[in-house]
Amino acid sequence: MPWIRKIHKWASVVVGIQFLLWLLSGIYFNVMDHTKAAGNTYKSHTHQKSSVSQAQLVELKTVLATFKASNSIEQTFLLGKPYYLLTHEPNLYKNFKHNYTLVDAYSGEQVNINSDFAKALAINSYSGPGKTTKIKLVNPPIDDFPKEKNAAWQVDFSDDINTSVYVELGSGRIVGHSDEHKRLADIFFMIHFMDYANEGSFNSLLMIMFAFITLWLSLTGLIWTIDLGLRGQYQIKFFAKKQGVRLFDKHQKSMGEVTLSSHTNLLDGLIEHNIALPSTCGGGGTCGRCKVMINPIVNATSADSLHFSEEELQQGYRLACQHFSNDVKDMTLIDITDAKKHNLALKSCRFISPHIKELRFKVCNGSSLTYKAGAFMRFLIPAAKGESIPCDLPNELKSHWEDVEFFEFNHLACTRSYSLAEPSLENDELVFTIKIQAAPNTTVLPGVGSSYLCNLMVGAEVEAIGPFEEFFVKEPSKNTMVLLGAGSGMAPLKAIIEEQIQKNNHNDEDKSECSIHFFYGARKECDLLYEDHFYQLADMHKYFHYYPTLSQADENWLGATGYAQDILGLNLDNLGPLENIDFYLCGPDGLMKETIKLLKARGVKDSAIAFDEFV
Predict the structure, then answer these.
(1) Which strands, in side-by-side order, build the sheet including 152-157?
(2) Do the beta carbons of residue 420 and residue 490 sit within 8 Å?
(3) Which residues are CB-neighbours of 275 under 8 A, at least 6 positions away?
(4) Which CATH number is 340-468 given?
(5) Which of 365, 380, 372, 382 has its CA nearest to residue 338?
C-alpha cells in the first residue's frame, strides 16, 4: 500500500498540472480572435479562376500521354492562368504526402514552382502592407504547419505581425498563412492537446500515456479508499458505539479499563480519560510518536508501515491516531506523558508582526504549569466558522493583507500543536506566537488552527493538552549555546533563551560561564519578532549575542542581510571550538536542512544538534 500511495500522489501532481494547463488554454480559446488565431489577418480572399476558351487548351489525352503513370488529373488556376495538375501518388487530404506534376494548360509543358513563381503566388494571396523580405524552401516538418507533409516555399513579409505565406512546391497550392497571432494560438493548442512534439495532432503517444496515468490515478484512489475503509478509517458518528478497552503500561502493569467511542481515534479517545500520548502531527500519522500495542492485532495502515518494522507490525505495534476502538480489547501504551488536558482562557492578544500574533492564556482552574522551555501544547480546535482575514487586524497592517480575499469558511474539528514562547520559571501565563496561515485563494482554506486561535476574543476558552517536553536544553551543560530560527520558530528559542538568563539571575551570576548566540531570520524588519527585547537582553547580559538577519531588507536596514543559516556559517569560526557548542534549531524545513548540512560538513556531531520540527 505505501507504494500505491506514493504513485497516487505523484500521478495526481502530473494530472493536476495538466488540468491547470487545460484550464488556462481553454480560457484563451474563449477570449481569442479566431480570425487572427487562424493566421488570416492579411490573407487575400480573391479567386484565381478566370474564364478561358477550352479550345485554346491542350487536350487532356495529350497531357496524359506525355506524362504517364498519373492517377488523376484536374484543372487548376494559378495567378489567373490555367494549369493541369497531375497526381501520381494520391492521398486522402491535401496536406498528406503527394507527388504532383504541374503542366501549362496552353503549351502542355511541365512547370516548376520556383522561388519567383512562389513569390508571385504569395503576393497574390497577401493583402497586408508588408514587402517580401525572404524566400526559402522548407521541408517537412514545418514548424508553422506541422501537419503538412509536403515541401513548401516560405515567403516572409515585413509587416507588424511577421506574416509568412507557405506555397506548396509541387502544386503551387497556398498551404496557409502564419503570423504572430497564429503562432501564439499554436502554443496554446500545443498545451491544450499535449502536442509537445509539435506533430499537429492530439492522437500522440504522450496523450495516450496521460490517459493511462489518469486511469491509474483513478484505480489507485479507489484501492486506497477501499483499503482505508477496510482498516476502519471511515467512521460515521451516527453509528458510533462504546467499547471497553483494557490498558497496560510498557511494563505490562494494568492501568484499568476505559470506555472509548468507536467514532474517535484511540489517541483522542484516551485524552477524554486524561491520558496523553506524545504526538506532534495532530493525528496525521506523520510523526510516529503515539505508539501502542493492540490486541487482537488489527490491519496496519500505510502510516503504521512507515514507522514500524515488519516484526513490530506482527507483534501488534500500531499508531494510536490511526485506529479506533473497534475490535480492540487490550492496548499497551508504549510511552505515556505527564501532559493533561486543560481549559485555557485567552487573557490578551496582539500582533507582533503583520502575520504573527502573541496569545496569552491562563489555565481556567487557576493553577500554573511547570515545564521545560521549548515545550509545546496540542490545542483541540472545535468545528467552527472561520474568516480568511483576522477580525481585529489593525489599520497599519491592512496593507500586508490587501492581496488576501475575504471569505468565510467552515472547518471540522482538528488538533494543532504550538510551542510556548516563554519559560515557566517566573510566569503563570502560557504564551504562544502563532503565524496566521493565509489562504492563497478561495479554493484553499486558510490555516484552520491559526485562524481559529488568532480570531478568539479575550475571555474565550479553548481546550489544550500538554505541555509536552521534547525540545529542551541539555542539563547540565557548560557548552556555548547557538540558537537559530526564523518566522514563528521564534517561540521555543525565545523561551530557551529567557530560561537560561533567568537561571543565571537566580544563581546571582553576573556572567554566564557559556555564551548564548541567537541567529534569527526574517524577510523584512517588520517581521522581526521581539527585536527591541533581544537588543535589550544583549545590552544587559554581555554573554548573550543577537544576530537579526533580513532576506528582503530595504535600504535603511544596517544589519546583516541574507539568510540566517548563511550568517551562522560566516560566524561559525568565531564562536569557539565546535566540539564545545550545542546547537538548537527551529524554523522552516529548508532552513533546518541547510543548517544541519552546514554543521555536519564542519564535523559537528548529531548529538550536538537539537531541532524542533514544523510538522
Answers:
(1) 132-138, 152-157, 164-168, 174-178
(2) no
(3) 247, 258, 333, 336
(4) 2.40.30.10
(5) 372
State the architecture of 242-333 in CATH terms. Answer: Roll (3.10)
Higher pLDDT, 24 or 9: 24
Lookup: cell for 156: 516572409
Which grid coordinates are listed for 8? 497516487
Q: Which three cell numbers stand for residue 514?
A: 557559556
Check if the beta carbon of residue 500 is closer than 8 Å to that of residue 425: no
Q: CA-CA distance, 582 to 416, in Å (whole number)?
A: 29
Q: How far apart are CA 42 and CA 311, in angstroms?
A: 75
Side-chain half-sphere exposure of 38, counting CA atoms within 13 A: 8
What is the third-level CATH fold of 480-612? Rossmann fold (3.40.50)
Beta strands in 269-339 (DSSP E): 291-295, 317-319, 330-333
Query: In the chain, where does the domain assigned CATH 2.40.30.10 lie?
Result: 340-468
CA atoms of 486 and 350, how far apart (whole Å)? 19
* 423-427 contacts, C-beta under 8 A, 24 or more apart: 423/373, 423/495, 423/496, 423/498, 423/499, 423/502, 424/368, 424/369, 424/370, 424/371, 424/373, 425/499, 425/502, 425/503, 425/506, 426/502
The predicted-structure confidence for 256-276, as pLDDT tens digits, reads as follows 888 888 778 888 888 888 788
Q: Which of 494, 366, 350 is nearest to 428 (CA)?
A: 366
Q: How many CA atoms lie within 13 A of 452 on its CB side?
A: 22
Question: Rounded CA gap, 437 and 162, in Å?
Answer: 48
The model's pLDDT over 217-263, given as tens digits with 9 standing for 90+, comes to 888 778 777 766 655 555 555 555 788 899 988 878 888 888 888 77
| pTM beyond 0.85 | no
| Under 8 Å between Cβ of 165 and 126 | yes
CB 517 within 8 A of CB 344: no
Helix (H) or strand (E) segment spanning residue 491 = helix 490-506
- Lowest-confidence range among 28-37, 62-71, 123-132, 589-598? 62-71
Please, are residues 25 and 202 in contact by the beta-carbon 8 Å criterion? no
Residues carrying CATH 3.10.20.30, the chain:
242-333
Whole-angstrom distance, CA of residue 77 vs CA of residue 104: 10
Within 10 A of 275 (CB to CB), how many other CB atoms are there? Answer: 18
**CATH 3.40.50.80 location in the chain:** 480-612
Q: What radius of gyration, in Å, describes the C-alpha atoms of the chain? A: 37
Burial of residue 481 (CB within 10 Å: 0-12, 13-18, 19+) is: buried
359 CB-side CA count, 13 A: 30
The whole-number average pLDDT for the span 279-289 is: 78
C-alpha cell at 305: 508501515
